[in-house]
Amino acid sequence: xxxxxxxxxxxxxxxxxxxxxxxxxxxxxxxxxxxxxxxxxxxxxxxxxxxxxxxxxxxxxxxxxxxxxxxxxxxxxxxxxxxxxxxxxxxxxxxxxxxxxxxxxxxxxxx
Length: 111
What we know:
Elements: H1 2-11, H2 22-55, H3 63-85, H4 94-109
């Protein structure tokens, strides 16, 4: 059974961008545009909030929670960038195959 799973995993390969259909390419570009628009809206509101917090005393109560939120978000982005630069997502299917191979070795050894 494990050999069957291993052979299935090896047959699956990710498509490159040139293999995508025109509809899939449009969908990817549309999703990218939506994410960028949402990000621009978030940055705009954050700048607007900062401007309002500096001018009015009424909005200063939320400065600390927003600052903490921004620091936590920067931390997650930093961790994601670190993992991306270190190649953590370059071989997503490999650990699954290695686990099955190791299990087969344990079965043969009687462990």
